[in-house]
Every structure is written in structure tokens, then in C-alpha cells.
Amino acid sequence: MTKTDNTVGTGAEAVNGAVASLDYSLWLYNEAAADKKGSAIQANKFTFTLGANQTIPGFEQGVLGMKVGGKRTILIPASLAYGATGTSGIPPNSGLVYEVTLTKIETVSSPASLVKTDLVVGTGAEAVAGKTAALSFSLWLYDAAAADKKGKHIQNNNFTFKLGNKEALEGFEQGVTGMRAGGKRLIYIPASLGYGSAGVPGVVPGNSGLVYEVTLNTVQ
Q1: Each residue of 94-130: pLDDT tens digit?
Q2: Which of 5, 100, 108, 140 makes a 20 to 30 Å CA pair with 219?
Q3: All structural domains of the chain
Q4: What is the DSSP string of 58-76?
Q5: Which residues, 6 or more positions from 79, have their beta carbon under 8 angstroms from its beta carbon?
Q6: CA–CA separation, 41 vs 22, rounded Å?
């Protein structure tokens, strides 16, 4: 594999655990061409978490170390791309040429353990295994650098689930357990009890902690 920086970026660096957003153009590798670019395959935008095995090994290795604003040409052997099987539009045993512009890096953080903080202590029925909880919540990515630990806002929603039935994230269920109807609680969830290293593509980066603000409406 060969990496050539056409423009060296000056922004945040692409390191394992970070979320990289980029623009790229892709060609088949052609040894006979002066620039090694053969047939054009596609040009697109792509966002992925480094170190989470969300793309081919050669592409991830090629992007590592870039800085935002940088532009890099990456020559990838078939063994670090789609190998002997190939994929749609890419024949077996094909090398690849990527031209990548790194546009954004987002850092990912997670609390070390589950933390629950009651903002309002409810006086109604208690949420315990076997009971059905109806609640409203707001969700943010966890940001260790923020004073309230709330990073990017993901959603506001209503949710009803039966505790003990594995109908919610493990950390969410643990966080809601013990609340009483009418209560409001902040729940800080480590990635290991959230969406783990896989995350939710395009929504929750791999290895991200979560912050929920939950209002428990009823318990039945």
C-alpha cells in the first residue's frame, strides 16, 4: 500500500476511535498508467469510525494519520481491498486507487460506567422487571469535554417497553430500573452497554457513550 499526500491538512487528525467524514474518488489500479488510475468506479461521500472495521482494511489504513483539510492518494493492493472475490464493479484481484479529501473529524468518548442522576424523584409506581414503562426521552451522544456531558443531540421520542424482556439497550433498561412514575432522570451509558463498537451507522458512532434524559410517565 502507498500513501501520497497531495495536500497536508492542518485540522484534527484521523486516529482510531474518531469518526471521519470525507469525499473520495475511486479507480481500479492500472500499472501501465502514469498516475496508476484505470477505470473510474465512483465518487462519493463517506463517514465511518476508524478502528471499527466499517470499511476495507487498506482504506482505513490509508486514511489514518490524515488531518482535516488534507488530500491523499491511496494505492491499495487487492489483499487489503476485495481480494480474490472482488465485489460489484470491482473484478477479483484488483488493486484500487482512492483520492481522498478529509472534511471532518469527530472525537468519540464514553463514560467508564453507568451513571444515574435523579433530577426529579417520582412518587408513583416503581419501574421493575416485569412491569411496562411508558416514558419520554431526549438522547445525546456523550461528550467528556462538555460541562453537562451532552454532545450532539440525536432525538426526542416516546417509548414504551417491558422491563426484563430485552426490548431496550442494556444500559437504558438498567438506567430506568428503580425510577418511579413522575420521575425525571439523567442516564449516562458507556458504549459497552449502548451500541458498542458497531454503533448505528450515520447516527451513533462506534464506541460512543450516550446521555438520556428520561421522564417516566406511567408504570403498569
Answers
A1: 999 999 999 999 888 899 999 999 999 999 999 999 9
A2: 140
A3: 2-106 (3.10.50.40), 115-219 (3.10.50.40)
A4: HHHHHHTT-BTT-EEEEEE
A5: none
A6: 17
